[in-house]
Amino acid sequence: LAQKKPKVVFVLGGPGSGKGTQCANIVEHFGYTHLSAGDLLRAEIKSGSENGTMIQNMIKEGKIVPSEVTIKLLEKAILENENDKFLIDGFPRNEENRAAFEAVTGIVPEFVLFFDCPEEEMEKRLLSRNQGREDDNIDTIRKRFKVFLESSLPVIEHYNSKGKVRKIDAAKPVGEVFETVKALFTPVDE
Ligand code: UP5
Ligand code: MG
């Protein structure tokens, strides 16, 4: 993987902040490949892998799956794809995820998009999403918010101290959020 030297942007933000929605827009306009760590883990459950039950239980509790599992899935997805530009959505979620990914892959992100959104807006979005996600119930949503504040915000702080965070007001309508995102991508892609 170190040989491939892919360009990686981490896309972070609380549950329901709009990471997946905005990644789809970025893919269309800027030619990145979107890798959602959560989607890869949910696909792993569906595939009936030996880790499936463990992953399912962690997601139901809003807990963070052991980093070796998630990192293996991300590495495989990067290697299987010919593209050299990736959006990694929803990972790293804690300091251990972050340190392990850097140590295992040697990849340091170009920058970090941080979708900043108030909890009440995120809660409203998740409760009305209706895509059958097992973690979109109020009990699990509250657990996800707690884990985000306690474990994931410190990762964003880490990258902020390195000047790598591009913070976006994600409470606005989808189109307005994307206008801000577009402006952040355009200069680095030229
Ligand atoms: N929506 C989006 N943008 C909107 C806007 N601007 N205005 C109004 N509505 C907007 O959006 C959520 C909903 O809001 C959608 O209905 C959308 O139309 C609407 P979405 O783009 O899906 O938001 P996103 O931030 O992607 O929300 P998601 O629920 O996917 O975030 P999570 O971070 O909670 O979920 P993820 O899939 O990343 O992780 C799920 C679980 O997997 C974790 O809790 C954890 O248990 C596990 N996990 C790990 O253990 N390790 C990992 O590395 C990753 C995940
Ligand atoms: Mg998502």
Name every ligand kind in the structure. P1-(adenosine-5'-P5-(uridine-5')pentaphosphate, magnesium ion
Count of beta strands: 5
The number of distinct structural domains comes to: 1
What is the CATH-assigned architecture?
3-Layer(aba) Sandwich
Q: What's the order of the H and E elements?
A: EHEHHHEHEHHEH
Mean pLDDT figure: 96
Strand content: 5-15%
Percent helix, as a range, is 55-70%
CATH topology description: Rossmann fold
Counting helices, strands and paired strands, the structural category is alpha/beta
**Helical stretch count?**
8
CATH class term: Alpha Beta
**Order of adjacent strands in the largest pleated sheet:** 2-3-1-4-5
Question: What is the straight-line distance between the termini?
Answer: 25 Å
